[in-house]
Task: structure prediction
Amino acid sequence: MGTTSLAEALQINNWIGGASSETTSGRSGVAWNPATGKQIAQVNFATVEDVDHAVAVAKAAFTGWRTTSLSRRSEILFKLRNLIEMNRDRLAEIISTENGKTIADARGEVARGLENIEFACGIPTLLKGGYSEQASGGVDVYQIRQPLGVVAGITPFNFPAMVPMWMFANAIACGNAFILKPSEKVPSASLLLAELAQQAGLPDGVFNVVQGDKVAVDRILAHPDVRAVSFVGSTPVAKSIYETGTRNGKRVQALGGAKNHMLVLPDADVDAAADAAVSAAYGAAGQRCMAISVVVAVGTVADPLVAAIRQRIGRIKVGPGMEPGSEMGPLVTREHRDRVASYLDKAKEEGASIEVDGRDDAATQREGFFLGATLLDHVQPGTRCYQDEIFGPVLSVVRTQTYADALKIINENPYGNGTAIFTQNGGAARQFQFDVEVGMVGINVPIPVPVAYYSFGGWKSSLFGDLHMYGPEGVQFYTRSKVVTSRWPDPGTSAVDLGFPQVR
Ligand code: NAD
Result:
């Protein structure tokens, strides 16, 4: 526990209708600085009434916003893009302070989020429909896409700015009004984004933020005026949000957890594979949904690869994200750090060997929620530390003798978010791309997060819903299609005809 009392701590409130909006719920949470272990803010949780208020304000704002021209929307998004760029360091500092990731990583997060705003600046082109002249005699048919109305996004702790941008950039560009419910662990980045959107000229009420927990989420899922819900978080919550939201008649895309495998074939360059594995496993302390958490080493590559990874782990500097030189920050909360650490003894009981134990890292002596990089070898599929999404700096090595065995392990895993293959054999890589049942695949690329003009999404238990997030599928998600059949006949040719209309 830190020294600041809750009463002295910064108060974090909702943002509704272009202004800070205090709740009367009396329910609150604590935002921690994971690097110091101190509480930095009190997050005041929204009530059902606060959510209802936000939806009513958004619904009123939608009426005007959907009539705003595409070029004006694009202009506002372009201004927002520039304002976020100008505030990149401020945003990164907020992210690092509340989430713990290093400042460089936080800047990278903002950059990847910005890609989505840049994509949405092209909304006049993205919303172009189709037109068929003379579909029948004197009849034209065309398709347009229209916004849904009030839509909501519920986001996780690990990307306080990027994941909201994945959602709201397209949602707003398409003409919807948006309600964001950020993770209660990292509430501040969304408020800065809302302020910047206002400065960019976005009409008040088009972008709102409600702080809080399940109470706010449940109301969003039940509210009849919320048309669509985007969710990113853990798999059990994603599944339940998808089921409840769709039962309530909403369009839902719910992205869940992951267990991302990196397959290393015997012909791979061991140093390059080790660099990639270490970067992708321990960046952001392993708290990325696209982090590599399992290396599947095929045949003779296993021993030199494990040795090369060990060597690199020894050089990782763990420390506060804001401290110059830190390469890996703390975990988001004390409870999460302890949960991740609890897997290490479990792994040993399950027959794995602990090659590097993160509990021995000097940074664990600090006040914050630190755990060093950990390497487990000889991990068996079916054990808890293989099956569970640990979501921390723990990399497991599974050894197999053949490509076929490795592929079977990956395809039998319930998650299917990301995967990567490391090889110098183009044919083997192409075969893997064809065979693997995972939504995002890297070929000698360990974290294959698609650029903003493709869409992001996993398979199996990593995504519930039909459409992936952001990019072209994001535009599809936030709009519905309307097809118009029109003719302008000479009234003199009109006659009653009870037959079913046919093309002539
Ligand atoms: P989480 O599921 O605990 O929380 C996500 C959001 O849901 C938060 O806003 C939280 O307040 C809310 N929430 C939590 N429990 C709820 C409940 N019972 N009912 C309603 N709402 C609830 O996830 P997290 O710990 O914030 O984030 C880490 C998880 O997110 C990991 O599993 C990670 O893999 C996943 N993630 C996935 C992706 C992806 O694109 N697939 C991206 C980032 C993170």
Remarks:
- The radius of gyration is 25 Å.
- The chain has 16 helices and 23 strands.
- Residues 154-159, 163, 181, 183-184, 213-214, 217, 232-234, 237, 255-258, 289, 389, 391, 417, 458, 462 surround nicotinamide-adenine-dinucleotide (CB under 6 Å).
